[in-house]
Design a protein that fits this description.
Helices cover about 40% and strands about 20% of the residues. By secondary structure, the chain is α/β, with parallel strands linked by helices.
Length: about 350
């Protein structure tokens, strides 16, 4: 997917002024995005999808999504919100939480073909030992509750225990993949929370999601995307064992003005650095590689040059068993698949630090 997104961007920036060709490129990107979303849902359920947690206000997320959610559920369904004004902050991946809300809203919509009410509520709750006793790994403390409820047909008792299983669906006739609720389950678990389902046939469904409350400051809003790729002239070593991804990254960097050198794995990178006549300004390295992984490679390089910039890239977590700590907040990371714009902005941001 990284190669597909990358070359799509390269085509777009290379061919200017041809609206018809740009339309074809946009369609290719839409198909790629759908395939990428499906892959991410699978990774999320298996807890290999890397989330990027930041401090966020859940109420802000819900409010920002309100117009979109109303369009998703349609005019026949009434959308109600009851958001506690004094809600604590949470540490979560914003796009992941948005996906949770969208998936639950879509499920509720499909359960109310003749109309009904979708309600989203938030509030703070303290959970004691008794409340969390049935939840492995969950400790007592302050939690933020996200409740999504509907007045739909409910979940039959005989399938209630299976609704979070991947590929289990009751909507195969309308294109259901069976990944909507399993994705919700995966994201909530990776965020350190848990969920509870209360449903009955013809009584509607209520899904309660509990996320740990945190103290901290809200992350600043992301800057808008540039129309053109940020340029540079620094020397960058690209370490990637996937030939397609490596070639894509090399093409993007060279197109943006950088001097890029490629290495097929960690050992090859060490050789390239030793033989180079000029220092490298940055190393872009995949994390999961045979023999020498990205982290070990970075440690070896840092021993000789502590000032060199390191950008980790990866699409899943098979190195760390800690679901949210593959890369520490002090390190720079870009998740695959990424576009040319994502890559060049990240590279420029790191080099300008």
């Amino acid at each position: 997917m990284t190669a597909l997104f990358g070359y799509t961007d390269i085509l777009r920036y290379s061919i200017k002024g041809n609206e018809e060709i740009h339309g074809y490129i946009d369609e290719i990107e839409k198909v790629a995005s759908k395939a990428s979303a499906l892959t991410q849902q699978l990774l999320t359920f298996s807890r290999k999808q890397i989330l990027e947690p930041v401090v966020i206000d859940l109420n802000d997320v819900v409010e920002e999504m309100s117009d979109m959610l109303q369009r998703i559920i349609g005019e026949k369904i009434e959308f109600k919100r009851d958001l506690n004004k004094d809600l604590p902050l949470i540490m979560a991946d914003k796009s992941g939480i948005e996906q949770v809300i969208v998936n639950l809203a879509v499920n509720s919509r499909d359960a109310m073909p003749n109309g009904g009410v979708l309600r989203i509520e938030t509030r703070q709750e303290y959970l004691d030992r008794i409340a969390v006793a049935a939840q492995p790994g969950i400790v007592p403390g302050e939690y933020v509750l996200l409740r999504v409820s509907d007045t739909g047909h409910g979940i039959p008792r005989d399938i209630r225990d299976r609704v979070f299983d991947p590929f289990f669906t009751t909507k195969a006739d309308i294109g259901g993949t069976g990944l909507g609720l399993s994705t919700v389950f995966g994201i909530v678990k990776q965020t350190g929370g848990f969920l509870d389902v209360d449903s009955g046939e013809s009584k509607g469904t209520t899904i309660d999601i509990y996320l740990p409350a945190v103290e901290g400051e809200l992350e600043p809003l992301a800057i808008a995307q540039e129309k053109d790729l940020p340029l540079g002239s620094e020397t960058i070593l690209v370490v990637e064992d996937d030939p397609a991804v490596r070639k894509t990254v090399m093409t993007i960097l060279k197109g943006a003005g950088y001097k890029a050198v490629e290495a097929t794995d960690g050992a090859d990178a060490i050789r390239k650095i030793a033989l180079s006549n000029e220092p490298f300004d940055m190393i872009i390295t995949d994390i999961v590689m045979p023999h020498i992984d990205g982290r070990e490679l970075a440690d070896k390089i840092k021993e000789a040059n502590s000032d060199i910039k390191i950008l980790y890239i990866s699409g899943y977590d098979s190195v760390s068993k800690q679901p949210l700590s593959l890369i520490s907040k002090r390190e720079d990371f870009l998740q695959k698949p990424f576009t040319a714009a994502h890559l060049t902005r990240k590279v420029r941001e790191i080099l300008d630090k």
